[in-house]
Specification:
alpha+beta, Alpha-Beta Plaits, 5-stranded mixed beta sheet, 5 helices, 5 strands, 43% helix, globular, disordered N terminus, binds flavin mononucleotide, BLUF_domain
Amino acid sequence: MKGIESVATKAAGEDMTNSSIERLVYRSRVVHPAPMTALEDILPVAQAWNARWGITGALGYTGRTYVQLLEGPTESLDSLLERLRSDLRHTDLRVLARGPAAGRLVTGWSMARIDLTLLEAEVTALLDAGDGEGLAALLAGLVRRGETEAR
Ligand SMILES: Cc1cc2nc3c(=O)[nH]c(=O)nc-3n(C[C@H](O)[C@H](O)[C@H](O)COP(=O)(O)O)c2cc1C
């Protein structure tokens, strides 16, 4: 935990809007239980952890797929990605986009939850094209329009 603690000190002491921020988009396959049930457990933990480590973003899901937009300091993203990769509640995690971001697409949400079921065709097309930036824009647009289910 020592490495993590040093990140905490740094994150807490920085102006998150000016420190270097990275944007990451991944997709993974849903594993039982279905997203609506799994997210009841996942979201409270995710929101608390993300708030502490300077991560904001949105977690979308269809019946089969999770798509998550994560924005925050590099160390926080690395640490979270490692835990996400070993989380058995999803599988086949694939990073679609990652890189420096001039600013956050999503602000004020430690993790917004978005039901993408009705947008499945659009989401599938973006996934098939491997278009992480397109998926980030889609999720961020939905958050801005208030199409979220939890703060
Ligand atoms: C689809 C999905 C998205 C998740 N998103 C986050 C997240 O944004 N932040 C977070 O801290 N944990 C998230 N988690 C949970 C982590 O994988 C992990 O279980 C949690 O951080 C607790 O880690 P620990 O059990 O090692 O303490 C997510 C899990 C899944 C399946």
